[in-house]
Each structure stands twice: as C-alpha cells, then as structure tokens.
Amino acid sequence: MAYDPNIRASDADRDRTASLLREHLTAGRLTPEEFSERLDKVFAARTVGEIDALLKDLPSIDLYRLPDAALTRTPRQQQRPGGGRGSGRHSGAWRSAWGVWFTVVLVCFVVWGLGGGGYLWPLWVAGPWGAVLAGGWVTSNAFRSGHRGLPDGHRQGQLPRGDDDLPGRPGR
Fold this sequence. Notes:
mainly alpha
C-alpha cells in the first residue's frame, strides 16, 4: 500500500507523534514553546500528512530502540551439560523451596508443642507438601533434560525415522 498523506490519523498515530516530540524536547531540538505548539497541532491533526508536517524538520527517532550496550547486565554463569552448579536438583530454587518447607513445618511443630501436644496435626502440613516437593525434586532433572523415558538417541517430539529406530526391533 502506497503512502497517502490524506489518510485519517488514528489516536495511536497522535500518541506516537507526541512521544516523538517529547524525545526531541528532551534532546534539546525543540524549545518548550515549540513543543507545546506542535503538541497542540498533533492532537488537532486529522490526517497523517498533517502529523508528518510537524516532524518534517526533525530527525527520525526509533522509540523502540534497543538499550545502549553500556546497560548490559553481567552474563549468567554457563551451565554445564551435566547439571553443574545452579541447575537441576541442586539449584538455589530447590534449596529455597526446601528451606521454606522446613521453616513452615518447624513453626507448625512449635505451635503444636506450645499448644500442649495432643493430635499430631502438623503432619497434615508436612506430609502432603513434602511429598509434592519431593516428587518435583526427584523428577526435576528428567524434565529439564528433554527426555522422559524415551529410548537412547530420541528427544521428546522426535519421531523414529524407521523400523530400525524402534526399541525391540532389530535393524535391517
């Protein structure tokens, strides 16, 4: 579709142009008076041609530009394929999850003990929650590695190529 300056401007066009004008004001290309005047004209504009005329003498700005290279974060530690430090069952997330479980269970037992003992209700907190946590912990490496009981050489989502790839069938 060719550019037609007579096409009606949308609210999104006006908002985008107002953002561009703010950037130019911040960069010092417009005085506050010029900015205010152009902003009034932007919101009164009916066509994209009228909006473009307000930006004609200004350089184009990409509002969606990537952050400056100086703002990059430090790279994460490379994870080793064997599930090195910080991955799988020994990650900080699992240590935190077990720590929370232990703390909550300990508080429950302290409350139970201060309440005079009796029925051992803290087991209803510790047991099911611990079982779910333990199940996730035990299976965490299997789900992370991408294969769940598939034959050697097969990845999840990969179909066998032929009869010789199927388990229990001899090759041709």
